[in-house]
Amino acid sequence: MADVYVIHSSKDNSTTGKIVELLRGKWDVWWDYNLVGSYSEAIEHEIAKAKCVVVVWSSDANESKPVREEVHLADRHGIQIIPIFLDETEMMYPFVSRSGVGFVGWNDLDSHPSFEQLIAKIANVVSPKIVKTPQHPSPIPLSWPSLFMSVSSHETQLVPQDAVKALRLFEASAILVSAYDLLPIRRPKGIIQELRQVHDDGGFILIDSGNYEATRRGDDSWTSGKFAEAMRDVPHDWAYCFDVMTPKVNPKAAIESVVKAVTRDRVAATQNILPIVHAPKESLSGYNVKDLPHIVREVAYSLSAPLIAVAERELGSGLIERAKTVKRIRQELRKLPYYQPLHVLGTGNPWSIALLAAAGADSFDGLEWCRMVVDQQTHRLHHFQHFDFFKYQMSFAESQVTLDAFDDGKIEYAGRVALHNLDYFRQFNDKLTHALKTNQMESMLVEIIGPASVKQIKDAIPDLFE
Prior knowledge:
Layout: E1 4-7, H1 13-23, E2 29-30, H2 39-49, E3 52-57, H3 59-62, H4 65-76, E4 80-85, E5 101-102, H5 113-123, E6 146-151, H6 160-170, E7 174-178, H7 191-200, E8 204-208, H8 211-217, H9 224-230, E9 238-240, H10 251-268, E10 273-274, E11 276-277, H11 292-303, E12 308-311, H12 319-333, E13 342-345, H13 350-359, E14 363-366, E15 372-375, E16 380-383, H14 400-405, H15 413-437, H16 441-449, H17 451-460
Parallel strand pairs: 1-2, 1-3, 3-4, 4-5, 6-7, 6-14, 7-8, 8-9, 9-10, 11-12, 12-13, 13-14
Antiparallel strand pairs: 15-16
Helix pairs in contact: 6-7, 6-15, 10-11, 11-12, 12-13, 13-15, 13-16, 15-16, 16-17
């Protein structure tokens, strides 16, 4: 006996199939797509037992004699009928005044207001099945927000081993290292020992998939198998999956591909694998983020991972657009029965970090600390070679390591710049944490980027600070 019986025209099979698939998450649903045997007998038998009938109404359904007969049959059995409208065609007489749901703008997602209204209407007639609550993810031993200092061999001023050594000396709390640079055939000598010391000192080590470096270098030989090989014997807390760089546009297919990648890498590389969700690239430039919030939520729900990541460059053309996307993702994640931390990959600019944190992101990583030099007074990034004009700021650093490096002739130029930047980002993270906890993000953004820019942001995202 079906909870919900779906009446439709065969010309609407595609849309009806999507509706049925989503409804089956909450009810037992019957429709005639796979019907074998006597059509009339099966229809009469199933309708008589159904608790509720959903009529997928359209111009094609209106012209279908079997659809009309099924509606009348359901009415004779006294079954509650809920019409949904795929176009502007009115429901057949005498059901014109029957309350229904407009599906003209439906986007095939269960998070769309029209589908949510349909769920509510059916639930008033038939109670949904009790769905098992997803397992609460085991928390990562980090406080939010968190800034990961990234390490990479691609276009940085410090080679990976020197970068890890600097982070160890500075006692950085969280670092991200590319698996691409850890493949045994090119693994820097001594880097494993440095990472092990970071880990022993209480530092959190996150390993990235290495696809950033492989893509930038055009290295098509970098595969999930090599990623798994690179992970061997590497001290780490968690690692990101070998991500699906060219995701499907279809949300269901995109979700399945990420879940499959994480499952594969949990077997081949390490059990502690986190998901990355990419947005599909559009024909010329930019990315399609329309369904990204829904996909992120469903991947998080399916995997119960303690952290889920998106790439900043894919969230929009400009920073305000990217903040809007992060806010939409956070709104979707709030639908989960637990708090789901969100990481934004490739975000090391203070302006970006502050705004995206205000929009709902929890952690970030970036290479700016070993690529650029930051002016601690203006929060602006400058070319690495411009450190001469900001070296004086080391004299009022909070870190003793940075203070000691100010006049230490044994520390080379690049090392001084790195320690100067690390001191800034530690202070910045402390201020960001305080601002988020005390609801003072607007004031912090005014300090960082100025009141005129904050006004522009508020005009574009009126509810950002609510």
